[in-house]
Amino acid sequence: MAGHIKLSELPKGASATVRDYPKSGGSLLRLREMGVLPGTVVTFVRAAPLGDPIEIKVRGYHLTLRKSEADHVVVEPI
Amino acid sequence: MDPQSSPAAHARAPVYAVVGNPNSGKSTLFNALTGLKQKVGNYPGVTVEKKVGTAYSQHGQPLTVIDLPGTYSLAARSPDEAVTRDVLLGRRSETPMPDRILCIVDASNLERSLYLVHQILDLCRPVILVLNMMDLAARSGLNVRAARLEKELGIPVIPCEAVNGKGVIEVKLAMSRAELPLPRHAWNVPQAIASAVSELQASLADNDAKLPLSARAEALLLLTDRDSIQVSGSTPLSPQTAAILTGWQRRWEREGTDWSSILVQARYDAIGKLTTQVVLRTPTGPSASDRIDAVVTHPVWGWIVLGGVMALMFLSIFTLAEYPMNWIDARVAGLGNWVRHSFPEGALRDLTTDGAIAGVGSVLVFLPQILILFFFIGLLENTGYMARAAFIMDRLMSRVGLNGRSFIPLLSSYACAIPGIMATRTIEDEKDRLTTILVAPLMSCSARLPVYLMMIAALVPGDRVPLLTKVGLMLLMYGLGTVGAFTFAWFFKKTLLKGKPPVMIMELPPYRLPGLKDVGLHMLERAVVFVRNAGTVILAISIVLWFLAAFPRAPEGAPAGQQLADSFAGRAGRVLEPALKPIGFDWRIGIGLISSFAAREVFVSSTAIVFNASHSGKGADAEAAPLRTALRDARWPDGRALFTPLVCLVLMIYYVFAMQCMGTVAVVKRETNSWRWPAFQIAYMTGTAWVLSLIVYQSGRALGF
Asked: Residue B590 falls within a domain, yes or no?
């Protein structure tokens, strides 16, 4: 999986395509339902002032999630 | 005319349910449709707010409108969302299954919004789709073609700007239509799970008495809703259907099929096809919201903005609230006097004046503060800043196991715990919410201020208390309460309310100008809920406290202090003295503790009565003597001074922790739907207060203070 990184490691302002995603546990299912799916393009907007949580842009809206959740999402930078 | 979809054919008013994502403008639309004709209550058995209103059709026919809690999906993750799901599916006995569904979406965020719509269309019920925030969509370069969407879905689609009332008439017109088409909603359930869906559908129809059409929707829902939240008042699944479901889940787990993801993916694929036809995009630069966020969530500016907003909030509470508070104080006193002069002397009159009026008045006086807080909380929610505050504070709150959503409720509790506790409804996770409710009253509220001030005055010798001492002691008390609140939050999350790992998946909605009508309505509605629900409990406790202080009756002409000393409260104070002595209090302070269970600031007035009068030898002089002198003159029977600096400090510490507020008790009862939690809260808070007081007093004594 060359070039694949965690969503939480994406640099600020960079966009990436979601690739892999563990089998849905409770909170990850909600992340899917919010539109973060394999193949979806996400943009890392910023981290909160204390570094966590992070803000991403997906399907035209802004979503925050904790780094511990973003760690599970594997993305491929564009 | 099909009688099923004709409102006129129903004996009762047709029931509409308003459903939508959080921040979609759902409540604004609900307010616009129903105006002030709303009723707020709880769904029985759960602490989920039930809002029902009446709207009128074009022909003046009344329509019942239920405002369901906002959700992103019918696969519920919180009790609020479970109620939305269950009402829509007709699973709740006390709420009629809606005849028609009014689905509201944020047009500037159509793709994600249509996920919920997609699930709702499965229900095969008449649906009206309201495309809200069309102005916002246009500004972000989106041309949403409502007519095309209407054609694709086969249901009425109405563009709307609920905040300024545009499109509301059109929504009402659609609601007034005698017949509504059922959605044309053909989508192929993915192959991998199709046979499971049909099997479940058949079982739901046969064993759970579901209508054939909605059985399919339920079958689909069962597959995404697997760690489904059950709330009381909802019918459980039949054993046959449950067995089929577990059978399939086992099989898929063996095969490695991620069935719920397949379903979500299939829905988004269908939505994607739809939106490419319906939405035309023109690229635009960063939106106003993006530019605001660059400042508001900036590592440096973000803190300054947050601090500024909070400072403004507290400044308004403490400056603006003063006038109406004095006014209420005067009115309550006036009413008491009027009753005293207009009615014959007797226990009934005293019950009315000293019990009901004075007791309820002691809580009512905080109503202006509570209203201003509700106003600010409504404003923060309405503009979208609330989510930013949660975003900024999440990291800090996560240290004690909470999430950013607990921040505003806890902060509001510095003014008054009542609105803080009522604002915890925005916390999705039930355990987080309960933890926040339990610790919120530890934040030093404004009712503690008079107690702190009195004790600081008694503690520091000399007529003028140096400002620095005053401020220092004050800060110490606020700090103590804050540390206490976070320590207990951490402790409860580790033990009593241990939950799943925290989740913080939250939308940051675009900033909006607040709809002042909505904020005002929100404020009024919260106030009514507080007065109506807490009112009875507060009245009952007031009367009990009055009875304790007024009986048995002292002989005619005895001073007020004498009456109080000989009353049940006085006797209770004496009975409690063995427990109070180790923390340096005598029975007279005990009376103050008992009577200030009504509200903390009552301690000041009851202490004034009990101590001024205890020097009965001085007669009228004692009455006139300032409270400070009276406190300084108070002695133990052996002649030692009662209010030593150490005792004053201990009393302050006691008041930081002890649960001395019947308004809070009443609100916690309402918000947790049981007496168990308020009882626990009284026990743990007052217990902590006693233990800490004991430690401080005894170590102080040992050190020679």
From this structure: yes
Total count of domains within chain B: 3
- Distance CA(B350)–CA(B352), nearest Å, equals 5
Chain B: residue whose CA lies nearest to A49: B299
Q: From its phi and psi, is residue B280 left (phi > 0), alpha (psi between -120 and 50) or beta? A: beta
pTM greater than 0.95: no
| A and B: number of Cβ contacts within 8 A | 120
For B74-110, give the DSSP string. Answer: SS-SSHHHHHHHHHHTT-BSSSPPPSEEEEEEEGGGH
Same domain? For B577 and B670 the reply is yes
Whether B40 contacts B51, CB under 8 Å: yes
Pick from A51, A60, A61: which is nearest to B395 by CB?
A51
* Disruptive mutation site among B78, B117, B226, B261 for chain A (greatest number of A CBs within 10 Å): B261
**Length of chain A counted residue by residue:** 78
Residues B147 and B219 reside in one and the same domain: no
The contacts of residue B215 (CB under 8 Å, 6+ apart) are: B201, B202, B204, B205, B208
Residue that the structure tokens 């004996």 belong to: B11
Cα angle at B632 between B631 and B637, to 5 degrees? Answer: 85
ipTM of the complex: 0.94
* Nearest-angstrom CA–CA distance, B517 and B515: 5
Is the domain of B154 the same as that of B70? yes
The two structure tokens encoding residue B226: 């697997």
Cα(B192)–Cα(B248) distance, rounded to whole angstroms?
A: 11
Residues B157 and B206 placed together within one structural domain of the fold = no
Tokens of B330: 């005067």
Rg of chain B on CA atoms, in Å: 30
Beta strands A54-58 and A41-47 are antiparallel
- Same structural domain for residues B542 and B651? yes
The closest alpha carbon to A6, from A18, B604, B29, belongs to A18
Q: Give B610-618 contacts, CB < 8 A, sequence gap 24+.
A: B610/B561, B610/B564, B610/B565, B611/B561, B612/B561, B613/B559, B613/B560, B613/B561, B613/B562, B613/B564, B613/B565, B614/B561, B614/B565, B614/B588, B616/B559, B616/B561, B616/B562
B99-146 pLDDT tens trace:
999 999 999 999 999 999 999 998 888 999 999 999 989 888 889 999
Helix (H) or strand (E) holding B179: none
Q: Which residues, in sequence order, are CB contacts of B485 under 8 Å at separation 6+?
A: B410, B439, B440, B442, B443
The two tokens of residue B662 are 């019947």
Longest dimension (CA), chain A: 31
Closest residue to A49, CB basis, from B297, B503, B509: B297
Q: Does residue B524 lie in a domain region?
A: no
Residue type, B180: L
Give ∠ CA B375-B381-B386 in degrees, rounded to 5. Answer: 115
For B230-288, the pLDDT digits (tens) are: 666 667 778 888 888 888 888 888 887 788 888 889 999 999 999 998 888 888 778 88
Which of these, B46, B54, B39, lies nearest to B528 by C-alpha position? B39
- Tell which phi-psi region holds residue B346, choosing left (phi > 0), alpha (psi between -120 and 50) or beta: left
Both B88 and B18 in one domain: the answer is yes
Strands B157-159 and B127-132: parallel
- Rounded to a whole number, what is the distance in angstroms from the first to the last CA of chain A? 15
- B261 vs A contacts (CB less than 8 Å): 21, 23-24, 29, 32, 37
Contact between A65 and B404 (Cβ < 8 Å): no
Domain range for B537 is 532-702
Check B508 against A63: CB less than 8 A apart.
yes
Q: Which amino acid is it at B23?
A: N
Whether residue B231 contacts residue B79, with contact meaning beta carbons closer than 8 Å, is answered with yes
pLDDT tens digits, A23-67: 656 668 888 889 999 999 999 999 999 988 999 999 989 999 999
